[in-house]
Amino acid sequence: MSRTRKAIGAVGPEIRLAKRLWGASVSGSLLEQLKELVETIGISVAAGDIQVLDGRWYVTHAGLLRLARRKRCVGIETAAISEFCDRANCHYAFKATVFTSRTCKGFVGYGDADPSNVSLLVRGAEMRVAETRAVNRALRKAYGIGICSVEEIGAFAHPSQSSPEPKKLPPQPANGNGQGSPKVRDRLCQIIRQHQLDPNLVKAYATDFCAVKALRDATREQIENFVAHLADWAEKDRNALLCQLNSYLGQKAGAA
User: This protein's superkingdom (predicted)?
Assistant: First the structure.
């Protein structure tokens, strides 16, 4: 009963956070679905368990692992399926088996990955993506999760066709650090508005990216590199970027 009361009490904060992160893209029906997911399986927006993409909820790998831990999952086994693996073409297939108890015979899931169905950001890591997808499917079967996981849906097509090379920022004045350069700051604000990113999460990510304790300690070159990186990632795979940003939820953004 205490768990139920705790879950119900978590609904309000989770819904408010979802509205703050995704705004108008979170409709009434999506909020009702989120409420049910929070109450029944303890899904948490704050912990990065869930994403909304193209008007639908998707659970994350981290969220599924958290659920398995709460449910006291006793083990997960994975194995490559050799007959469906082709190293020369970076195609891999995995089988995952989730054991929910010591007497459980196992819930099986399969996952595959190759350059045609993964994001540009994870090219070269197809084997790990395939294993993650297999684990996600097995966990969803084991715990009755009806919504697909982010990692299973592969690469997204975006309206804007960007060049494979990161965009270069115009040269900046030689004096001053990154945050003191108006053009860089304006470009960053433009990216945040264009792709509807959370400024505080972007700031936290920038601090981590620049390896500084506070963003004001970053050099102009570090800020320029971050802005170029952020713009490139937002255009190539905004959904993956959102997952990265949400990993900073609960952390304090560094002071600018």
Answer: Bacteria
